Amino acid sequence: MRNLMMKWVPLLLVLALSGCGYNTFQTLDEETKASWSEVLNQYQRRADLVPNLVETVKGYAAHEKEVLTEVADARSKVGSLQVTPEVLNDPDAFAKFQAAQGQLTSALSRLMAVAENYPNLKADQGFRDLQAQLEGTENRVTVARNRYIESVKAYNIAVRSFPNNLTAMMFDYEPKPSFTVENEKAISTTPKVDFGGSK
In whole angstroms, what is the distance from residue 137 CA to residue 38 CA? Predict the structure, then answer.
């Protein structure tokens, strides 16, 4: 009888775990990681555009050193962050990541505003190409961030909902941090980088 019970224990354990949300957490955690990878991919794409953008602007507006330095410093800060999957579970590390990306967004906005003062720069085909790539990348960043926010929302609801929350406590599943914005409109508004080059 004891041997028969020992054979059934693993099966009963599997059935119990599948019915208490364990598999749901696995699925939602993987979806969150996949969404996060896409966010990182798009932010990296944006960071890769910065050196060429700075060099192009420097060719026409070298005396705008403060803005050019600000963009280069912001990109350097983004590049120096160690972005591992653990960032998803560490609110402080996530906040640092978000702050660094926000600083780069702000610096790029100022750089594009400076470009408005240089008609020859705005007419440069290389600059217009980079500008279009930046605009497209900012759109992709917004889409990727929104997908990540939705995946974190689904995960966090599962972590906090009964009876799944009991499984979450048992296996140390914690709510994940998500993007926050000072201005709620900022999350749905793509930064405007078109300064009339297409007119």
Answer: 12
Total tally of structural domains belonging to the chain: 1
**d(C-alpha 23, C-alpha 155), whole Å:** 12
* 159/75 Cα distance (integer angstroms): 35
> What residues in the chain have per-residue pLDDT under 70?
1-20, 181-199
Q: Which has the closest alpha carbon to 173: 199, 152, 146, 196? A: 152
Q: Which domain holds residue 56?
A: 21-187
Q: Is 105 left (phi over 0), alpha (psi -120 to 50) or beta?
A: alpha
Angle at 176 between CA 18 and CA 76, to 5 degrees: 135
Predicted pLDDT at 2: 60
Tell me the pTM: 0.77
